[in-house]
Amino acid sequence: MMQPPGIETRITTRVQAEPFDVATEYTAFRQGLCCGAVVSFTGIVREHGGDNDAGNATIRAMTLEHYPGMTERMLADIARQAADRWPLKKVLVIHRYGSLRPDEDIVLVITAADHRADAFEAAQFLMDWLKTKAPFWKLEDTEKGPRWVAAKDDDERAAARWGNEGGQ
Q: Are 20 and 94 in contact (CB under 8 A)?
């Protein structure tokens, strides 16, 4: 379902080194908002690495690098595309960069719509495209040494279901 004409989605995107508080962000997001559904997703640094050559190594820290200016524009573009695809009332995307430890929050996505399916699908679209199209690079500091996190086929397949227009 596309955004009805004349409806403007309020979009906020931030790229920041500082931690964010999910409860505070949610409360601020809900301020003055009347809708049927709010969906939120919080991405968290895992303690164990993925499925590459280093195996399931313990992660001591993860450093996220980004391209300032380009990253902010890309996040705003991805959020705008979600608002163009679904009748959203509001979108919030916060993505951190810098050095993070296991159990720290990396990303927060919140979507609001009159219907839950729209809010859920938009949030999933945002995460799928953030994982595959946002210009972030992740370096894990593991017990087996540092390693760059490569793109995963599962992430690419998840993003492909939404099509590949825009956000390239």
A: yes
Residues 58-97: pLDDT tens digits?
999 999 999 999 999 999 999 999 999 999 999 999 999 9
Report the alpha-carbon distance of residue 36 to residue 6 in Å, rounded.
Answer: 19
Sequence length of the chain is: 168
| pLDDT for 167 | 39
Please name the residue ranges forming H helices in 86-148: 116-133
CA 92/CA 86 separation, integer angstroms: 14
Q: Are 89 and 152 in contact (CB under 8 A)?
A: no
Number of H helices, E strands in the chain: 4, 8
Q: Output the CA–CA distances (angstroms, integers) from residue 18 to 21, 124, 135, in the order listed.
A: 10, 24, 18
Question: Residue 115: which H helix or E strand, with range?
Answer: none
Is 167 within 8 Å of 74 (Cβ atoms)?
Answer: yes
166/144 Cα distance (integer angstroms): 38
* Residue 135: CB atoms within 10 Å: 13
Q: What domains can you pick out in the chain, each with its CATH number?
A: 10-160 (3.90.1170.40)
